[in-house]
From TrEMBL:
Alphabetized InterPro entries for the sequence: DUF427, DUF427_sf
Coiled-coil stretches noted in the UniProt entry, renumbered to this chain: none
PANTHER family, per database record: DUF427 DOMAIN PROTEIN (AFU_ORTHOLOGUE AFUA_3G02220)
Pfam families to which the protein is assigned, alphabetical: NTP_transf_9
Source domain of life: Eukaryota
Residue ranges constituting the DUF427 domain according to the UniProt record: 6-91
Protein name, as recorded: DUF427-domain-containing protein
Amino acid sequence: MSRALAKVGDQIIAETDTWETVEGNIYFPATAIKDPSILQNSDLSTFCHWKGHASYWSIVVDGKTLENAVWYYKEPYDAAKNIKDHIAFYKNKVEIVEE
């Protein structure tokens, strides 16, 4: 069985054995976050013509804030309905490991 991990330093912040891959990004189920209190709302919003409007969270780990490191589509368009209730991490801010 394979699994995907999201890590900040040595700390695993998300872990799952089921995920969606879209445009080279792993979308973790939202329930894969080990401690949701590390997520901080962000005002950033972006738009993708086929996925819809993305919202962002920052991550606070060990007193360090990683701005807008997480994104999700609260109401994805039909073409991206497989990533509803999933989140993705910027690979330049969070280490993503597939095992």
